[in-house]
Amino acid sequence: MSNNTIKPPTLLQSIIPIIVLIGLISCNVLLLGNDTLSGANQLALLFASAVAAFISWRNGIKWTDTMQGMIHTLIAAIPAILILLVIGMLSGTWMLSGIVPSMIYYGLNILEPSYFLPATLILCSIISVAVGSSWSTIATIGVALLGIGKALGFSEAIVAGAIISGAYFGDKISPLSDTTNLASAVTETPLFTHIRYMMYTTVPSMLLTIGLFVLLTFVGNQSGSDNTSQEIQNTISSFYHVSPWLFVVPIITIFMIVKKIPAVPVLFIGALLGAITAIIAQPDVIASLTPDGKFSLTGVYTVLAKCLYGTTEVSTGNPAVDSLLTTGGMGGMLNTIWLIITAMMFGGIMEAGQFLEKIMITITKKVSSTGGLVSATAGTTILFNLTAGDQYMAIVIPGKMFAKSFRQARLAPQVLSRTLEDSGTVTSVLIPWNTCGATQASILGVATAVYAPFAFFCYLSPIMTVVYAWLNIKIKRINAETKLPAESD
Description:
Layout: H1 11-32, H2 40-58, H3 63-96, H4 99-107, H5 116-131, H6 134-151, H7 156-173, H8 178-186, H9 191-219, H10 228-239, H11 248-258, H12 263-281, H13 283-289, H14 297-309, H15 319-324, H16 334-352, H17 355-364, H18 370-388, H19 391-408, H20 413-425, H21 435-444, H22 448-451, H23 456-471
Helix pairs in contact: 1-2, 1-17, 2-16, 3-8, 3-12, 3-14, 3-16, 4-5, 4-10, 5-6, 5-7, 5-9, 6-7, 6-21, 7-9, 8-19, 8-20, 9-20, 9-23, 11-12, 16-19, 17-19, 18-19, 18-20, 18-23, 19-20, 20-23
């Protein structure tokens, strides 16, 4: 096809697919609520992709070229998809082996009225990092902590702010988190490179958040008591064999991460070590999950296989604990993988149709500095959280839109991936009509507008990433001719 027959897209043509996407996702949020992640948003991405493909065709771009654009982005997503599948395996074996339950058990020991708020923040952070989900952390331990805090006389708004801040800290940096993997995939940044680079802005944000909650602890009324945490501990210890020795597996996994071993082998080895640990440390748990209630060779194989690929549900008699200790294995990652595939298709068509280039030229024509580019990216992710009502879209769309601008500015991809998570993942929970804000308000029984002023970490993260950019702190740059290594800082 001759380039002369291709018409450059107008700005209106370039934003029509995004408008369609935002409109469809808004309808999904209003009509389907929490069920939007089960396929509705993926369907919205497909329809928006069809609109973008049609406009591209009208502008003279052949379908074969559009398909090549999709293939290019899908290939880039394959490592993230593999990582997600292995993460599903790891989460299953770490739960079955008692590793995560032990983290929860010992974590609850740090709760005392005199430092309840920072302890709540840190505990939610630990659990969220371990399980890779802010939603499950808030829905289980978060609910228990809110009850404890209210009994101790703390404002439910402040306690909810501590819970939200801790849960989204873990969601932001955990290798088990879908948003962490999504930001890594969209920007083609190796997972652990992305996580390590986020630490530069995330750790200071968290330290400031801890300091603020330490101050607020002295303001709260520390009276009363609650046995909720002891009840959770008793339930866990009565069902699992709890021991500090179970932390050997996470320590080995972290050691391999520090040694910069690629993500897939690290997580796969971690999953296998979890399976071995389950056989050694939790024979009674395994027996309780077999059809005949016996610890046999066939029973062990059946339980371990299911925890690797499917849902594993325990029955401790405590609904909150049961919910926390339920895992989905590889199957639990399929909705996120489906989302990544459809998002990559949309991004590939938008790139092949030159729509992203047109939008970026319009947005960045007055941006002449690193600070301006990072600020524009952060602002765009927050705008998508406001308009699209979904944190995944706030990561995917700006990630594809700004990728070329970051390359032209000779900024490493981890600068973009960090900006997306610093501003996209954590601000979603501050918006009442966003799926995250609506869900957490419903779970905790505290309105988004009530807890939002105290979710300090969610404010500090985007501020920190913008400040770092303007002050040129920890901004990784590359030469135009340099090919980025597979795993580097």
